[in-house]
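Long-time lurker. I teach an intro course on protein structure, and each term I like to show students one example going from raw sequence to a predicted 3D structure in token notation. This year I'd like something fresh instead of my usual example. Would anyone be willing to generate the tokens for the chain below so I can use it in lecture? Attribution to the forum is fine with me.
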Amino acid sequence: QVQLVESGGGLVQAGGSLRLSCAASGRTFSNYAMGWFRQAPGKEREFVTSISWSCTSTYYADSVKGRFTISRDNAKNTVSLQMNSLKPEDTAVYYCAADRRYRVVLSTNPLTYDYWGQGTQVTVSS
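-- Reply from a regular --
Happy to contribute to a lecture. Here you go:
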């Protein structure tokens, strides 16, 4: 079992930056791929980025590629999302999630992730 708690959300102007963190409890955190998803009002939850357990693989949605960076520290049981050049369309609740199954290719499907945090709100004003 893994518990995930996000932090770092807030209100920022367009062009600004935020860094989200996700703290995980549980000894098996380092075995899981981790992902960030987001959900805007009235929209479905969408994939943002993911990282393999070993940090050797990352994957980004086209909408955030070049602006967002995912990282993790297995010794500290944390995964982070650095968000730069934020746009109003990045406004959403951001969730971190853990995928406990080994996959050759990182999953972008939220249904394949087993554990979720409660989310943190990111609001980008224009």
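Some talking points for your students: The two ends are 40 Å apart (CA to CA). The chain has no helices and eleven strands.
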